[in-house]
Amino acid sequence: xxxxxxxxxxxxxxxxxxxxxxxxxxHVVALVRDKSKLxxxxxxxxxxxxxxxxxxxxxxxxxxxxxxxxxGSGGNTGADKTVLIDLWAACRAADYAKNNGVKHFTMLSSxxxxxxxxxxxxxQPYLVAKHMADEHLIHSGLHYSIIRPGSLTNETGKGKFTNxxxxxxxxxxxxxxxxxxxxxxxxxxxxxxxxxxxxxNGNQSVDEVLPS
Length: 212
Prior knowledge:
Layout: E1 3-7, H1 12-23, E2 27-32, E3 46-50, E4 66-69, H2 79-99, E5 104-108, H3 124-138, E6 144-149, E7 151-153, E8 161-162, E9 173-175, H4 176-188, E10 195-201, H5 206-209
Parallel strand pairs: 1-2, 1-4, 2-3, 4-5, 5-6, 6-10, 7-9
Antiparallel strand pairs: 8-10
């Protein structure tokens, strides 16, 4: 049975993505710190693993062919949590995936992770964490997709994308709905070669902007 482990399945994007996966009849293992946050999702193809990412969570990887790291420390935490979740937990997830023979690892990263020093000063710890986690995955030997969305919004999904960074900063945005849709495509249509893709709302369909 083909299963996908979603790390951070109760987050703002993670929960949307989890529901999309189930709606598409995919078997999901949802790794969350508090399973009550998924109490409104009931599906026979959903298994929930309750675990703290600061502890050993390798047991969640058993029998999973795909892994999606969608966890994040959140905007209201300090640099310490950013290091522990966005960097260290992401690196450990890649290591666990390698140990367990995972076929495809999808990392939800961020625009600016390629050049953290060029980002806003208050965002640099977060961007450094994302950069280092991405680099660890790149050098892990895993088959991967790294998706770097622009600034996130809570508008209704548009279903239209571009992988070309807009010239105007205020246009470099994407809805959380659409990031979830992109993750679904990345999992169900894994690229032949490992890829890194920046993603924004635009005028193209997801299959036109994400390699498969």
